[in-house]
Design a protein that fits this description.
heterodimer; A: alpha+beta; Ubiquitin-like (UB roll); 15% strand; B: 989 residues; alpha+beta; Aldehyde Oxidoreductase, domain 4; 5 domains; 27 helices; 34 strands; oxidoreductase activity (chain B)
């Protein structure tokens, strides 16, 4: 049994202190230790993007980050994107524009879209496709996902405040 | 701390907290076969083997087993390869509800390791630390002896094959009984399930009414050949039970569960003048605290039956507390320990009120009102604390008494007891991914729960799903909302899964209790013994709330009807007191009525100097007569029931013979130890049309098996086995082909049976009807396959046969309908309340009274039940033995005491004095087969009936032995001795 290390991570605004094995991946830490199962595992090789979360506000693939590496950092998962009982404009966009079918890639898509819109609040269709190229979807053909992000961009820019739980 | 433990042969490194019990560690690690029944080392449900020695894991620290070998029942054997002990438990029907089974198996295993050839006494001793409330220990003992013989390499008598028909079996005569009445020697037959089992005396003779009738030749009645009904099919959940896989309410844990604890009242009656929860809320890891300030004051009932007058007198949380143990506040926290700590930080000031602690005081002028609030609805007379009242009368009772030669009046008291199933009350509520509120509980009222919780939480019914796991003993204590409302409100407040699990002490203090009954009997008789007028007046304590006030007394059947006469009166006042609310029996609440009636009958016989049985035979309810009493409550439901059962006289004849009435009745001696025998009768049924319905759905699977959606979850009454047997019988398959899904409001049809008897008939009939429809569909598809008329086809063992050897299989029918006709065969059916046949019983007890100490030893209990054509004789008998064990507790030891402030004095199993394996007397149980009976293959419910006759038979036996009449249960040595002293001083005076 490897020696355990103590880490402190703030996830969705809540601080967690845990004893973990150094080799544990961030995605396993989130799913198994914190029971945040909204972050999905699609490939374990950083190709599909189903596990995207925000690390200090930047989208990362949680299957290629060690939990140790997130020590002292702030993580936002799909569960923390909007306050309980509310939806973030990106989530509303995916709902309204039918940006999902089976729903497995959706949390990763939404977290990547967040990064995209943060960097570029008014993206073109091409820029949206470029921004989401690390997220694979087998159901939708991406058409409605692009529309969902466009819808979100429209609403986020017209709203006075952006209700994102992690303010960086 | 880190521990290295060999669990079931695997070395595991485990983290344990210093003060953690071994039980907690094992359950946390997923060994859910280790059950939590008390946490005080008394019930044995958590037994494991530590280095080969059977120990209760709840009173061992996890840290004590570092380096030890721990074995749980998972290591004994698997469903594919059962250990001989496990198979013996399955084969002889020793599993009951299954909650205590794992512990029993391990205690037995440890015994057999050290003593491969145990005697029955050795086995009982080894199992004495494992309490069981379902089966009276006879079957587990039999199973252990059978397994021991097998393990020694001996040949044991094979048990019957599950598909032997009753007719075949009943042609084998094995034993002879002399009939007391006729002087003939009719033949007593041993049924399939009775065959050998290591020499234990638990046979299941099946006797037919004709056999005991004078000069009737033994001819089995011509009947349809049955294949599954009437066989000793293993219990539906037996394999799960013996491998520890039974899933009870505490065996399932959603992620991120939080734990609730309830703060309860220390006073019998008080008003909360102030309550401060700020410190409790501030405690780290406390998630929410609720008091009456946080919930609306909506009156509700813990079981609100529709279609009847509702009695709504309870509140989720209230500022008035009405019994010691009543709810004051509820806390939810990350762990149960933190929640418990938070309870201590809640500051409550009580304005203590006078309390009513005896129902005889409830109606007195100036008595305090238990329900003074205006919001409550449906109370008959809140001023005089009368929750409800029942009156039913025929003829002119006063005139009847006036014209009698003798009028005998006596008063009886049946004290409070608690049924105390081994599994504790447990509920978990959570929101699932679809945002439905899921309620997983061992209260067995899923549809009532759904409706009431919708009212209390404000959620629409569609967003509430109630799932019923298996229940570790129902016994009448799981027939109301106990804490589901609080748990659901906490899940709503925190959005977290929340579990509320009682401790054993909580069960005794806060949960419902069979409350005290006082009964006054008055009978007018002619000199020759003919009853001319009879009256029973009942004062029932319903406790602080009328949870079952309407159901307990207002069922349609009353004991008094056993001896019909022209002038009869039944009165009951159901009174509020400051005791815990009254619970219900698993079946009909008649045990107190029969204690009074059947004790009283012996008093009447004594006065007339008449044989007690002759008096009964002269007056009893006979086949062909109408049920005599008008229905009291809901009388508009009509009544014209003719009693069609002829089983009672056979039952009595048999018990009279078996208990040795003629020889032992008149052998009075003056020794210190005096023996006597007593007999009592009992019956139940539904003379009126009762409200209630139940549905069943069946679908045929591609491989020829059936999915059956019906019924209630298994609770020890073996309903699930009966339902699979019924479906298998109709559909011509074995019970393995029937996959039963019960008790989930999202998939199972509606079902609202009031008790296990109603549920037997309603669910059984619904399943039978749905299966018959399915059979018609199957035969019509088969007809199309074979190109013949469906009417010419018959199904047997899954094969559909026509004339000239043509045949097809269920699998072919299924595939033809799915892939050629493009439809799946599915049927749905329902059954609404009808009158049910009466079931009668006779019970005899032989006792030995020690006149110097007052000690009573029960030597033998004989029970004969008119079971119609029993669906499963083996399991019916196990059920009866369990009822007798509980009745012995009620009669001798389980009295539930309160102190002068209304504080219950029972806190643990050792206070409750439940019978253990070593304390049980010899049990003889006879299922008397009668061929009238129900449309359900002529079978009748037997659950709970054997609970009625034991106490009065015991009272009559004590009267016979020592010439003392005790009219107050329980027959403790103190009470007997006091009666003996009073008798002696009366004699010398």
């Amino acid at each position: 049994m490897a020696t355990k290390r103590s880490i402190t991570i703030t996830v969705n605004g809540q601080q967690h202190q845990s004893e973990i094995e150094p080799r544990m991946l961030l995605v396993h830490y989130l799913r198994e230790i914190l029971d945040l199962t909204g972050t999905h595992i699609g490939c374990n090789t950083s190709q599909c993007g189903a596990c995207v979360v925000l690390l200090n506000g930047e989208a990362v693939k949680a299957c290629t980050v060690l939990a140790m590496q997130a020590h002292g950092c702030e993580i936002t998962t799909i569960e923390g994107l909007a306050p309980a009982g509310e939806l973030h404009p990106i989530q509303t966009g995916f709902w309204e524009k039918h940006g999902l079918q089976c729903g497995f890639c959706t949390p990763g898509m939404i977290m990547s879209s967040y990064q995209l819109l943060k960097d570029n609040p008014h993206p073109t269709e091409d820029e949206i496709c470029k921004g989401l190229e690390g997220n694979i979807c087998r159901c939708t053909g991406y058409q409605n996902i692009v529309r969902a992000v466009q819808d979100a961009a429209e609403h986020m820019s017209t709203e006075t405040s952006i209700p994102v739980s992690t303010q960086n | 701390m880190e521990l290295e433990v060999h669990i079931n042969g695997v070395i595991e490194g485990l983290d344990a907290v210093t003060n953690e019990s071994l039980l907690s560690l094992l359950r946390r690690e997923g060994y859910s076969s280790v059950k939590r029944g008390c946490e005080t080392g008394e019930c044995g449900a958590c037994t494991v083997l530590v280095d080969g020695i059977a120990r209760p894991s709840c009173v061992m620290l996890a840290s004590q087993v570092g380096g030890c070998t721990v074995s749980t029942v998972e290591s004994l054997g698997s469903a594919e390869k059962l250990h001989p002990l496990q198979s013996a438990f399955v084969e002889v029907g020793a599993t009951g509800c299954g909650f205590c089974t794992s512990g029993m198996l391990l205690s037995a295993f440890a015994l057999l390791q050290n003593n491969p050839s145990p005697t029955e006494e050795d086995v009982r001793d080894a199992l004495s630390g494992n309490l069981c409330r379902c089966n009276g220990y006879a079957r587990p003992v039999q199973a252990v002896l059978r397994a021991a013989a097998l393990l020694r390499g001996e040949r044991v008598e094979p048990l019957a094959h599950p598909t032997v028909s009753v007719d075949e079996v009943s042609s084998v005569a094995t034993e002879q009984v002399a009939s007391g009445e006729s002087g003939k020697h009719p033949i007593l037959q041993t049924s399939a399930a009775a065959s050998g089992s290591g020499g234990v005396t638990t046979k299941i003779p099946v006797i037919s009414a004709q056999m005991l009738a004078p000069s009737t030749p033994v001819v089995p009645a011509p009947r349809t050949q049955l294949h599954v009904i009437g066989t000793a099919t293993a219990a539906h959940h037996a394999v799960k039970a013996v491998t520890g896989k039974g899933t009870f309410a505490g065996d399932f844990e959603p992620r991120k569960m939080a734990y609730a604890r309830v703060l309860t009242s220390p006073h019998a009656h008080a008003v909360i003048s102030s309550i401060d929860v700020s410190q409790a809320k501030a405690l780290p890891e406390v998630l929410a605290v609720l008091t009456y300030k946080d919930v609306p004051r909506t009156p509700y009932a813990r079981i609100e039956r529709t279609g009847e007058t509702s009695l709504l007198d309870q509140y989720c949380l209230d500022y008035v507390v009405r019994y010691v143990g009543d709810r004051v506040a509820v806390v939810v926290a990350e762990t149960a320990e933190v929640a418990e700590e938070a309870l201590r930080l809640i500051k409550v000031e009580y304005d203590v009120q006078p309390a009513i602690l005896d129902q005889r005081r409830a109606m007195e002028p100036g008595a305090v009102r238990v329900h003074a609030e205006r919001e409550s609805l449906g109370i008959v007379d809140a001023e005089r604390n009368i929750a409800t009242r029942v009156r039913t009368e025929i003829g002119d009772v006063e005139q009847g008494f006036a014209s009698s030669d003798h009028v005998i009046e006596t008063e009886y008291l049946v004290p409070a007891i608690q049924q105390a199933p081994i599994e504790k009350y447990t509920v978990t509520t959570y929101f699932d991914a679809d945002d439905y509120l899921v309620v997983r509980t061992n209260s067995q009222i899923p549809n009532y729960l759904r409706r009431t919780l919708a009212q209390l939480t404000g959620l629409p019914m569609r967003r509430i799903r109630v799932e019923q796991p298996e229940i570790g003993g129902h016994l009448g204590l799981r027939q109301h909302i106990e804490g589901e409302d609080l748990c659901a409100l906490l899940t709503l407040a925190t959005r977290r899964p929340v579990r509320l699990e009682y401790t054993r002490e909580d069960e005794f203090r806060s949960n419902h209790v069979h409350q005290q009954y006082i009964l006054r009997m008055k009978t007018g008789v002619r000199r020759d013994g003919k009853i001319l007028a009879s009256q029973m007046v009942v004062f029932a304590d319903t406790g602080a709330y009328g949870t079952h006030a309407l159901t307990a007394q207002s069922h349609t059947v009353h004991a008094l009807a056993l001896y019909p006469c022209a002038n009869m009166r039944f009165l009951a006042e159901v009174l509020y007191t400051n005791h815990a609310p009254a619970s219900l029996s698993q079946t009909y609440e008649l045990q107190h009525e029969f204690f009074a009636l059947e004790s009283h009958l012996d008093d009447v016989a004594r006065q007339l100097e008449m044989d007690a049985l002759a008096l009964r035979r002269l007056n009893w309810l006979q086949a062909g007569a109408r049920y005599p009493l008008p229905l009291a409550v809901g009388a508009s439901r009509g009544m014209n029931t003719i009693i069609d059962s002829k089983g009672l006289s056979t039952c009595l004849q048999l018990v009279e013979e078996k208990i040795g009435w003629k020889t032992k009745r008149n052998q009075r001696k003056n020794d210190r130890y005096r023996r006597g025998v007593g007999i009592a009768l009992g019956f139940y049924g539904e003379p009126g049309v009762l409200p209630g319905t139940s549905g069943a759905s069946i679908k045929l699977n591609e491989e020829g098996s059936f999915e059956l959606f019906a019924g209630r979850s298994e609770n020890g009454s073996q309903l699930t086995t009966y339902l699979t047997q019924i479906a298998a019988e109709v559909l011509g398959v074995t019970t393995e082909d029937i996959l039963l899904h019960a008790a989930d409001t999202s998939s199972t049809p509606f079902e609202n049976s009031a008790n296990d008897v109603v549920s037997f008939y309603l669910n059984g009939s619904a399943v039978k009807k749905a299966a018959e429809q399915m059979l018609r569909q199957i035969l019509s598809v088969a007809g199309r396959i074979l190109n013949v008329l469906p009417e010419s086809l018959k199904i047997n063992h899954g094969i559909i046969k026509g004339a000239h050897g043509m045949q097809t299989t269920l699998e072919q029918v299924a595939q033809h309908s799915l892939y050629v006709e493009n439809r799946q065969l599915m049927t749905t059916s329902f059954w609404k309340g009808q009158t049910f046949p009466m079931t009668f019983a006779a019970q005899g007890v032989e006792v030995e009274v020690d006149v110097e100490t007052g000690g009573v030893r029960v030597l033998n209990v004989v029970t004969a039940i008119d079971a119609g054509n029993p669906i499963n004789p083996m399991l019916s008998e196990a059920q009866i033995e369990g009822d007798v064990a509980q009745a012995l507790g009620l009669s001798l030891s389980e009295e539930f005491f309160y102190n002068q402030d209304g504080v219950p004095l029972l806190k643990s199993w050792s206070d409750a004095h439940v019978f253990s394996a070593t304390e049980m007397p010899e049990l003889q149980t006879y299922l008397v087969e009668s061929h009238e009976g129900s449309e359900l293959f002529g079978s009748k419910a037997v659950a709970g009936l054997a609970f009625y006759g034991v106490a009065p038979a015991l009272a009559n036996a004590i009267l016979n032995a020592a010439d003392i009449r005790i009219r107050y249960l329980a027959f403790t040595p103190e009470r007997i001795l006091r009666a003996i002293h009073a008798y002696m001083s009366r004699k010398s005076a």
